[in-house]
Amino acid sequence: MSQFIGKQVVLTLKRSIICTTPKHRAFMQTLGLKRPGDTRECEYTPNVHGMVKLVPHLIDVKVKG
Asked: What is the pLDDT of residue 2?
């Protein structure tokens, strides 16, 4: 996924965050994802990469365009 750095991506929450750790819930709040199916477009920076790398089971990442 590091090949996405600097590109616009679409992040989608694919699972609920109910049974996750508080740290993972904080990552989802920072990314702006609350409910399964929520999407957000953002630039894929090293900060976003670090968060996505820790919760790949919760997030789907697609390159925009």
From this structure: 81
Mean pLDDT on 26-47: 96
> What is the amino acid identity at position 55?
V
9, pLDDT greater than 80? yes
Going by their DSSP bridges, the two strands 59-63 and 39-43 should be labelled as unpaired
- Name beta bridge partners: 11: 40, 61
pTM of the model: 0.89
By residue count, the chain amounts to: 65
Distance CA 25, CA 17 (A): 6
Model confidence at 65: pLDDT above 80? no
Structure tokens at 26: 């904080």
Q: Distance between CA atoms of 6 and 9, rounded to whole angstroms?
A: 9
Amino acid at 45: T
